[in-house]
Amino acid sequence: MNRLWHRWRSRICAPFRTVWVAFAGGAAVGMVCMTEYTRMPSPLVSAAGSWGYLGHLFVRPERRGRRIGHDLVSQALDHADGRGYSKVVLSPSPPSIPLYTRCGFSIDNDMMVRPAPDR
Question: Which of 91, 75, 66 lies closest to 32, judged by CA?
Fold first, then answer.
């Protein structure tokens, strides 16, 4: 178990990833991660710089509806703005779309996806 914990911790504590945890009554009640990606140099200003991927937002079911998720996302977006990211993207679940919309995200269908081959 200790080895698994250290391997997991090394992944989430990497220099390109930031994790926020919300606490209530001394217990963790929610979390979110921001992973930073740096693009290759480009002459196009819109294609340059770093961007963030927001993921792993989770709030304990009994704590939902209390703005914990909204506050976690707001903290992550403040971090992204402070780092000068050109954009922040995410892959929402259908129930999470209203929360992300309230946080300033919009649906953008300009991505192409290659699913993994059947194995």
Answer: 75
